[in-house]
Amino acid sequence: MSRLARRALLALAALGAPWGLAAGPAAAQPFPARPITVIVPFAAGGPTDTVTRLVAEAMGRDLGTTVVVENAGGAGGTIGAQKVAQSRPDGYTLLLHHIGMATAPTLYRRLAYDPVGGFETIGLVTEVPMTLVARKDFPANTLAEAIAVIRKQKERLNYANAGIGAASHLCGLLLMTAVDAPMTTVPFRGTGPAMQELLSGRVDLMCDQTTNTTEQINSGALKVFSVTTKERVAALPSIPTSAEAGLPAFEVTVWHGLYAPKGTPAEVTQRLSQALQAALRDPRLVARFAELGTAPVAQAMATPEAHHKFWLDDIAKWKPIIQAAGQYAD
Ligand code: ASP
């Protein structure tokens, strides 16, 4: 074949010629045709990472492909979110993020990506309680005693968080506002590494999802003062709610959702949503979530539409709170 004829055939193939000279355009292939990557915008070993690994494994079973988890922590989750917003919108790069998706649009006034318009929603995943925990030798045994220590020692105490906009940051702000005393905040790339510092006593206090604290609490490696929910948590039945322990203003839960970059085809986000729903029905996942103090959302919430509405409502809920506090990340 002449070089010219070969070039003409290759050009036709690149246009997706239908007679099988080359694979057709990617959109014509069944989805998924290869492994999928889910970005966790926090360090490995933390609560968002734990939830994502369980969901990824179960989704992979439904999709018939591997769902790889990649950690891109830092800046309260905005580094990982940016990575996904700027990825190809083909369904092969996803983001599993938490409540920080609702606070970043107001907390961060300068971002290199669009924190709302840069994403397609796939579905909500779970809403996780938080716990206020302290190093094992912290000089308090109840929330009232801990508050007295915080009011007395103030900035001499180190409060660990995962950066501005992280759930641990929001929870700390609520606590410090409720007790009217500041502490020194020490940011990490996620509360996985922060937990190691707390266990070794190098920081004093942290507020974190039960998906990272339940096992440490139950083994006695940490002190715990309250769960930040209205009701007690089944996996931690003896731990009082903040209201029971005397601080009703200290209530926060951490919702998580799955996102794709803006422009991902609707049939792809629908297929991913189906896989997410299947994952959230998976008995192994449900059992592990329960051990970690949480539960999957109702199936109707694991859809692009329900997730999108919930997310926008939550952005609107946090906006006036952040603006009134006047505390921005930049
Ligand atoms: N729990 C962290 C937070 O404070 C994030 C993480 O490491 O999963 O948002």
Automatic annotation (TrEMBL):
The UniProt record lists the keyword NADP: no
User: Which branch of life, at top level?
Assistant: Bacteria
Gene3D superfamilies for the chain = Bordetella uptake gene, domain 1, Periplasmic binding protein-like II
Q: Which UniProt keywords apply?
A: Signal
Signal peptide range in chain numbering: 1-22
Pfam families linked to this entry: TctC (PF03401)
**UniProt similarity note:** Belongs to the UPF0065 (bug) family.
Under which name does UniProt file this protein? Answer: Tripartite tricarboxylate transporter substrate-binding protein
Q: What is the lineage of its organism?
A: Bacteria, Pseudomonadati, Pseudomonadota, Alphaproteobacteria, Acetobacterales
